[in-house]
Amino acid sequence: MKGLSVFFYDSESVTQEFRDFGLVEFNDIDEPIKHMDNEPPLKQMNRFFHILLLTFIIASCSNLKTDNSSVMKAKGLEIENDSFKKVIDMKKPIAVFLTFQESNAEQAMNFYVELFPNSKIVEIQRYEKGGPAKEGTIMKASFELNGQPFICSDSYVIHEWTFTPAVSVFVECESNGELEKLFSKLSENGKVMMPLDNYGFSQKFGFVEDKFGVSWQLNLR
């Protein structure tokens, strides 16, 4: 039975496992193991089977602890992944914000949506009666031009600044027909700053300011 001392070589680890799982109430189980050689064979055999049974119980509980730990880690990763998805879903795109000072934001928005394909009005918030601005004018409206997000608003405060050609909307046109149509519509009652032509950097390009003061660069791809 001396081989038993090799089987329980790390007696301190076994003792600690017994204590962790609450399977023993005494302080030290090393002593019975160390003195088994002095006991009768039958008593040694009974003690051996008792210890062996406890060992299997500890092994099972250790596996359970590992499994539970793996489950908790998996749940943690799932929660983190869900949080990351929420962050992605909540992320808002960058949009062009147009501030109009002549109460014509809705007129401009309708004009653009009708002109460009794949465009739509998404949401409109209006000033109500008794508010700081004229009732029914646009507090904030969101719309899309060919899938790109835009926002517009009627400012009831008249600022010293207004639209400038330094900031413009650049449009890539798929065909010459599309380019000429947009150039014609956008320049009507507006201003042509660069007529349609080949300027070296593009086979055909035009730069206009529309009747609302918004500038557009039109390029033939």
Roughly how much helix do the residues carry, as a percent range?
A: 40-55%
Give average pLDDT, whole number: 76
Strand content: 15-25%
Gyration radius from CA atoms, angstroms: 40 Å
Give me the count of strands: 8
State the end-to-end CA separation: 90 Å
Unreliable runs: 1-15, 21-36, 83-90
Query: Number of DSSP helices?
Result: 6
Secondary-structure-based class equals alpha/beta
Order of helices and strands: HHHHEHEEEEHEEE
Characterize the largest beta sheet: strand count, sense, and whether it forms a barrel: 4 strands, mixed
Shape: elongated
Q: How are the strands ordered across the major sheet?
A: 1-4-3-2
Describe the structure.
The chain is α/β, with parallel strands linked by helices and 221 residues long. Helix content is 42%, strand content 23%. The chain is built from 6 helices and 8 strands, in the order H-H-H-H-E-H-E-E-E-E-H-E-E-E. The protein has a 4-stranded mixed sheet, covered by helices on one side. It has a 4-stranded mixed sheet with strand order 5-8-7-6, with helices on one face. Strand 6 (191-197) and strand 7 (205-209) form a beta hairpin.
In short:
42% of the residues lie in helices and 23% in strands. With 221 residues, the chain is an alpha/beta fold.
Task: Please write out the topology.
Elements: H1 3-7, H2 11-20, H3 30-34, H4 41-90, E1 96-100, H5 105-115, E2 120-126, E3 138-145, E4 148-154, E5 168-173, H6 176-187, E6 191-197, E7 205-209, E8 215-220
Parallel strand pairs: 1-4, 5-8
Antiparallel strand pairs: 2-3, 3-4, 6-7, 7-8
